[in-house]
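[recover] target loaded
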């Protein structure tokens, strides 16, 4: 998978202002700082963002939109997959272990969202392949349009100390579609979210 990501970046251009970049099934080259590749045979869409040494796979859909915001280097949305993906990059920090980093996220989620009307269920940090994945379910028990959301986090720390944190969230109800998304999220965050080698 890393070779596929590396093939996406012969030279990334700086991002420029504009609205979201919309993927409709055709590869995108350097549009507003995004390179997007279709891998329909693998049920994936690959995305790389200018100026950042990571590649991310997402479940295949022909309605993904990609943009950068003040808080996220990648904000991606798909109605078909009922999924939002967010990638954040930290400033350089001291080395941090994946398991401890993700456990702190879970603690923060419990502290911020936990209340009488919101419950955090099935929260756990689990090792898949060589990396850790945080999963949890947020359930509203009253007064909310979205009764259930399922969340997944993964992280990688680049050699220079930058932490890349990926968050996948879906409002898909329990059932086969959610089961498929859960399996894809685990694979993506454990195996298909990769730091890319520096360009020479």
């Amino acid at each position: 998978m890393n070779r596929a990501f590396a093939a996406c970046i012969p030279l990334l251009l700086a991002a420029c202002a504009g609205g979201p970049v919309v993927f409709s099934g055709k590869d995108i080259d350097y549009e507003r700082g995004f390179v997007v590749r279709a891998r329909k045979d693998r049920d994936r869409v690959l995305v790389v963002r200018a100026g950042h040494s990571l590649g991310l796979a997402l479940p295949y859909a022909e309605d993904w939109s990609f943009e950068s915001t003040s808080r996220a280097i990648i904000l991606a949305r798909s109605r078909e997959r009922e999924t939002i993906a967010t990638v954040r990059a930290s400033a350089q920090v001291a080395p941090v272990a994946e398991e401890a980093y993700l456990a702190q996220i879970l603690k923060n989620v419990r502290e911020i969202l936990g209340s009488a009307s919101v419950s955090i269920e099935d929260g756990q940090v689990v090792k898949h392949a060589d990396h850790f994945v945080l999963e949890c379910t947020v359930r509203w028990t009253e007064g909310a349009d979205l009764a259930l959301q399922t969340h997944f986090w993964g992280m990688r720390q680049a050699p220079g100390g930058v932490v890349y944190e990926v968050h996948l969230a879906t409002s898909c109800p329990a059932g086969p579609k959610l089961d498929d998304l859960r399996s894809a999220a685990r694979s993506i965050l454990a195996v298909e979210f990769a730091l890319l080698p520096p360009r020479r």
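[recover] notes: The first helix runs from residue 2 to 7.
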